[in-house]
## 1
Amino acid sequence: MNSIYVYRRLKQLAGKGYTFLKWNGKYGSGAKFVVKDNSNGKQSLFTPGRLTDMVWVGSDLVAANADWEEFGNETVDNLKDVVF
């Protein structure tokens, strides 16, 4: 595999999935996250198991929830698969 292929593949993957930016520090049903849709840069508050409650916005929810904990920019392909 050459470096040009790897670069192109990483570029394709970069715009996919969802990145976890912040976490309210709670577990179970009280857990909430600020997530970013990598395909369009919009953010939403996410509670695992409650996808229908999500609203995607162009606002910076990280700044609005500055007192929340960093979550290491973990990325997932599908939010339906997240269990916390």
## 2
Amino acid sequence: MIKSPFVIISATTEKQSAVESFKQSHALKNHLINNEISFKVVSSKTKISFLIPNLSEKDALNIAKMFNQESILTVDINMEAQVHYTNGACCKQMGHFRVDEGGDNFTINGIKHICTGG
């Protein structure tokens, strides 16, 4: 069960091919492992992302910039989700983040995501 603030970061963009998306996701995973940052792999139908507990917004934005991402998703201790942009633009409230029954999977904006390990 998710019990602490966390961020969700991806390494892919809509313009990338499936092969390039796989390479970028693998590179981000290796970066997290090499820097001893704990994570869970999170997937939706179209994207692989990484759920990272207790990482500061600043550190998350720096990692996102390294992988040419436009934004990160943060979820606070009250389970309120917010998008933060790497270009410094103001954030966007996403509403309440809901953990699905069973513990690790979640739904936000009606889209189900699956945590697959780390």
## 3
Amino acid sequence: MNFVTRYISEALLLQQSWYYPGIHEKEPETFKKVLWSLGFNTKDYTIEVRECEHRILEQRPETYNGIMFVGYERLDKEWARTGCMTMEAVIASSDDKDHRKELVEMATTAKFKEE
């Protein structure tokens, strides 16, 4: 089985109307469903709650000291069809070894066309 780590800061979730601090403890099933919709594999793995200093994607380079939820990204076809799957997850979800190799090369190698 392949794993792709996925993170989300509570600071981003606080911007959503449905989220409130402690929802992961008070309404764990609801929280799992929402994280599932955000690409976390909550069916097969638990979500770790970390209290730490971290960066929020939208606020680089500033850091945020607070809760970060950590888990694994979904690798299913339904998630892939959303267009939100990370490149790492696309690669990890491929059953074809040659296709994975090609995707890795495409993701890591800059190819320039001479004119």
